[in-house]
Write the structure tokens for this entry.
Amino acid sequence: MFCIPALLISPLTASAQSRDRTTVIEASNRSDSGLPAGVIEDLGEPQETNPYAPKFSLNAGTQLQFVSNALQEGHNGSADFLFVPTLNISAVQPLPAGFSLDAIAQLDMVIYSRYSSLNFWGPSGSAHVNWQYKSWLPKVYFGTEPYDYQGFDGTNVTAASTITTGIVQNFELGGDGRTQLTLAYKFSEYYAHPSYDNRSANLASVTINHNFTSALSAQAFYSYQYSYYNNAQQTFDFSTFSFNSYHRQDSRNIAGVSLVNRFNKNLTGNLSAAWVGNNSTASGFSYQNIIVSLGVNWQFF
Amino acid sequence: MFQTKYLLTGSVVLSTALFFHNIALAGIPFDSAKVSLTENKVYVGNLKAGGNSRHPAEIGTAVTAKEFVATDAASRAELKFEDNSIVRVGQNSIFSFDAGSRTLSLKEGTMLFYIPHGSGGGNIKTPSFTAAITGTVGKVSKNLLGVLKGEVKVTVDGKVYVVPAGWVLEVVDHQVRLFKYKPGFATSGALYYFGGLLPETPDLGGNPYNNTDPLLNRPTHEPPPLPTRQDF
């Protein structure tokens, strides 16, 4: 998870140290390392890579989810199984001085087994400019995370363009490199359709990740999100013969655990469980939900 | 008299504390290591007596700082030190170590080293370079050093180079070549898996999927939560 920053910092460190070393020769492309076969057999062959080369990834995944409250009304009264396939392509472009660009384009689909009238699908994505000057410093980013979801019958469910900014700080715990603590904060401004979804959201999260092996890792996480809907709903006041709007405010707590296993270079599996509690000042928007999810992801490249 | 006694006792306590403090800072000397794994023909010999003194090494054989470890073709050995440092010696290698300076010397062949963070670090010495290491994982041959974790300061012909994780320093005809390696190098090669995975994982880079959100180890973008019924 936290290797991109290292990728960005490394070339800087090396090039900074080598700038005044006249004996350093510029790395050039080579097809043959020239190392003896025995060395390659024991150490592997170190082929050089361009630190500023863009990286692309194509992923297809699916989640089978059990949700205790598919309607997200009240307390866990509408259990359902969801099938959630996704397809995404992502790109990361490292830049000098700790900057990078990343972008993801994704196609999501949510299929309910019991409440099939709620089925929806649509594109979503994100694009960020990231900056992390040193690997031990926080990463800050700025970008957009739009989405556009519609029902299977073509009706608009929800869509928004966003302005997002955030900061992420990683800490290594225990000194053996296996456990990381991540603190993150994100602010998003949503310009939504329908417009009563316009909102400002503040999300803070804390995550502990532990790598049992190089393939198997576990996470425990907690997040708190405060959303302020500035155009939540309008009611018609007959006494004044005008529309009154009220401002909806939501506080959402999410706590959960997950296990992630990388079976091979391409296949990753995950098992997660989370509790969601949403308190809203608007009636009908407070709910609790329990989500248990089993998923696989195939990374084509 | 009474005060002198207390002063003397205090001095002894302070000196003892400083002594152990300095040892802790410098790390436990590499006095000896135990052979924890062998493959095919592995030998231990006396450094002063040379190659004629060598005798076969087995699992459990203690190797001191006055000895060397040698391997034949298709032969490998793993050594474990008291501070949990691990050295895996590849085929056709000659390896030794110095106690006080915590120096790992590779005269021929290859090795993979793991020095736990906070153990006091150490040094690497080959015919081409010397290197100062702290908590680090790396791969070494006579003229090449690849850093898998941490950072290594390498001295070549009196000049110092800082090599971070993900980079290789190679010395060819007294010329230094630094380059970033493809991520697959970190976990490739027989020594990486010889004896099982190391206690620490390398700092692998280059996987866009690593750009994850703290939640659920997914990419930074996630679909929004399920719509509520009122959204329809």
